[in-house]
Amino acid sequence: MSRLVIVANRVPDPRERGATAGGLAVALKDALHRREALWFGWSGATVAEAAATPAEHRKGRVTYATLDLSEEDYRHYYLGFSNGALWPVLHYRLGIARFAREDWEGYRRVNAAFAAALAPMLRPDDTIWVHDFHLFLLAAELRKLGCRQKIGFFLHVPFPPRAVIMGMPKAEAILQALGAHDAIGVQTEDDAENLRAALVTGGEAEAATRVGAFAIGIDAAGFAALAARRFRTKEVDQLRDSLAGRALAIGVDRLDYTKGLPQRIAGFGKLLQRFPQHRSRVTFLQVAPVSRGDVATYRALRRELDEMVGRINGQYAEPDWGPIRYITRAVARPTLAGYMRLARIGLVTPLRDGMNLVAKEYVAAQDPEDPGVLVLSRFAGASGEMEGALLVNPLDPDDIAEALDVALTMPAEERLARWKPMDAAIRANNASAWCRRFLAALEGAEAAPEPARAGSGPARRAA
């Protein structure tokens, strides 16, 4: 079996244990255990001047190779183009994207530097799997260096309609670079249709035929076992005791404007306003670790949430009950698993999400004898698999409130009937199945054609 080369913006710390590893590391665990592997990407560190040669660390059959970013590249490649332009556009938010030519040049420079550092490490029969929007250009840069290995790309976030993506400067250059891949994966068929249409518009009609939908999964059995083990720990016992018999609703999200957090808080406030019978009978715990705190948009979001939570708690709290508990620091994944098992409601309401694995983790964490209810945004990729969820439009606080009321009053028989097919779905389409399906498509694909040179056609303008 050929070596698997994983390329991602961030490389996990090989010292991390499975319970604390990031989402991609967990999803790829099975693939990494089955064959020799190289994981290549950014170390997470910034330095005054980055070295061109990666640092290497081997653990078992996996070699971790990392590059530092210069402070300038971090500012332009990561904060600027990746998070200031691509992130909002890919989440359908063209109006708040910030584009600067120097950010685009930094993005190109880092993709080219990654390719230049990776190419000498490659073997002729390697299978290369590139992950996410930070590295849209990497395969094209590898092809320029003469790399002919099979290269696949998987986009973990949504891909927007053609009119949205084509409104972003340099969209044509990105679409042209995507044509260097032998297989291209996205989360849902809607994303696939959007990407195919954009590729055709960008002059990459042949590449459009290499796009497929591969819904990412979780280790459902492993997370269920983790939740069951952590259900009777000190941390979960303390939360249970503090609820004093009240129902718990839980939300777990990175603090990001795509997650619909203000709308979710407003929906819970509407529940208390419109359905006063639930006052003092349910507590909402929102865990939202701060991310990208050096970006003004995220600082403004945190201030907005602080004010909303304070206002609702001030209006509805009783001496022995606060409606909302709001945590902006990270909580260990095992502890979260126990909290999810305790929660009667999982509240997952992104404005737009590629998949949303929290929804699947909540389902996996439930007690099979007494499961809770998933309230899920219809704009999360997971909504296509979670047929037993109560689907809501996160832009409508009353819709969220009504779903919460239904969830809080739902009889046990209906909760069980809704949970069983969702649990079966996440166990069947788990992380291992996702890896196998994508790698089978990549390794069975015909080689992508030689990329055309910039300027070879009307859609091939110089990058």
UniProtKB/TrEMBL annotation:
Instruction: Return the Pfam families for the record.
Output: Glyco_transf_20
Domain of life assignment: Bacteria
- Gene3D superfamilies in UniProt: Glycogen Phosphorylase B (3.40.50.2000)
Question: Which GO BP annotation is one of this protein's?
Answer: trehalose biosynthetic process
Which segments cross the bilayer? none
Matches recorded under InterPro entries = Glyco_trans_20 (IPR001830)
Q: Which family does it belong to?
A: Belongs to the glycosyltransferase 20 family.
Return the protein name.
Trehalose-6-phosphate synthase
